[in-house]
Amino acid sequence: MKAQDQSTYDVIISGAGPVGLFLACELALAKCSVLILEKAEAPNTPLKQLPFGIRGLSAPTIEALYRRGLLEQLEVHKRIKNPHLHAKEGAQRQVGHFAGIPFLEGNVDTSQWEYRLPGSPATSLISEMQELETVFARRAESLGVEIKRGLAITGFQQNADEVTVEAGHQSFKAKWLVGCDGSRSVVRKLGGFEFAGTEPEFTGYTTRIDIADPEKLKPGRNVTERGMYMQSQPGYVVIQDFDGGAFHSSDKPITLEHVQEVLRRVSGTDVTINALHTATTWTDRARQATTYRNGKILLAGDAAHIHSPLGGQGLNLGLGDAMNLGWKLAATIREEAPEGLLDSYYTERYPIGTQVLDWSRAQVAIMKPDPGARALNAVIRDLINTRDGATYFAGRVWGIHTHYRLNGNHPLTGHSVPNFEFEDGSAIGELMHDGKGILLDFDGNDSLKTFATEYSSQISYISGSAKEQLGLSALLIRPDGIIAWASDKSFDLNGLEEAAARWFVINSKSI
Ligand SMILES: Cc1cc2nc3c(=O)[nH]c(=O)nc-3n(C[C@H](O)[C@H](O)[C@H](O)COP(=O)(O)OP(=O)(O)OC[C@H]3O[C@@H](n4cnc5c(N)ncnc54)[C@H](O)[C@@H]3O)c2cc1C
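^ FAD-dependent oxidoreductase, sequence as received from the core. Prediction below:
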């Protein structure tokens, strides 16, 4: 083993995927020292490049990026002239799907989402993994994060104070280790985490191939009696073969002959493949770590939960973990965390993960090539074509309804803060770049201003009227944009005091 790196970092993150990088940004923003150890020598492996690297971003992710000033750095965002949802434009445009059944933009009734303000960022965007990782890595490094590539974590030991991590015959020390090392996470496996869930129904294939007779395949997504195939653009074919996940679990190589046999069987054609350029397999195995923390070891992203990519939620789920964990772990490290703050990472994120796993299982259940599944599929198809149905599915797929069950009487408690726009044209999301909590006071109340000074190291006080205030007078917003307390016109200071004490500590060192 080489001479040790003597620094003790606040946090070592295993994996420079999108979740590890975004978490590193959140921690560094909160003044923590962070080292990322990444197995791959270079960023941007072929499967993260287009078109394999295309990922759908949902509302909570888009809001998180917007609140940290990262959204405008994405080309995909710049390409969209007006990212807000306009039902009148392209009413027949497909804006999402459930088990391959599309829902149309014109059917989604956004007026049912009463707290979504017109100035909110988009509800869904198509992004590129490669670009996301480039933007996150640039941001992380600008905040002082060290990224060491070509170093796979192979082991670690923890005691009450620190974790010693081994990677590439070197060792590194940190107060905390977070496993963001993907679905086959070494941190999860060596950290003694139970990974409970369900076995797969199918093997999925993502391929780039030359097809001799492409006209034999229908365009778009096709659910067949044997599975599903989809040609997103010429030569890029995704297949789902209901083999119980057998091929993915085998050590067999993905050959041209095998892909051709599967594609012929699933599509019910005699299509011929001339060349196989790239191929990878995946499954709908759905598993979730039963706890996200073991001592000084934490998990986030695919390391904590895996499921099929149907409906594309894994990245969103993982970035949601990072947004939730970052400020809580940072406050814990700075000794500015109230009792139980870090535990709330698991209590808030585990149920969200479970919902996503079930959403993916429900889709697989109605895609199976059997009569019962086909019958259920027809019922869902009818429902999704109704206005309420499309609105429900859009709300779930875009994460509009994602919220945490927090104490508090106001219906907005636990929800993402609406993007209030102020008279000067600024919006609340743009005031969250520094990662601090916010006490937002629409009415300029002196008692709130005084209250906020007690927490000034963790909470900024913002006063001013908004164009649309939704009947509210004041809100306490956590660093992740979640409303901890909200009040209509007559507010009780006790509720605010309780909420503030739950998430923040009164100034200790900083003032
Ligand atoms: C075909 C497909 C389509 C998808 N579409 C969508 C979509 O539209 N929307 C969506 O939200 N999600 C989608 N997903 C899921 C999404 O890609 C993942 O959930 C997301 O990449 C998880 O990010 P992560 O950072 O947790 O893990 P990863 O992206 O897997 O990154 C983990 C990193 O850890 C590194 N690593 C692994 N082991 C070690 C080690 N021992 N030491 C150090 N580093 C290590 C890896 O090299 C990698 O860089 C899709 C997935 C697939 C397969």
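Confidence is low (pLDDT under 50) at residues 80-88.
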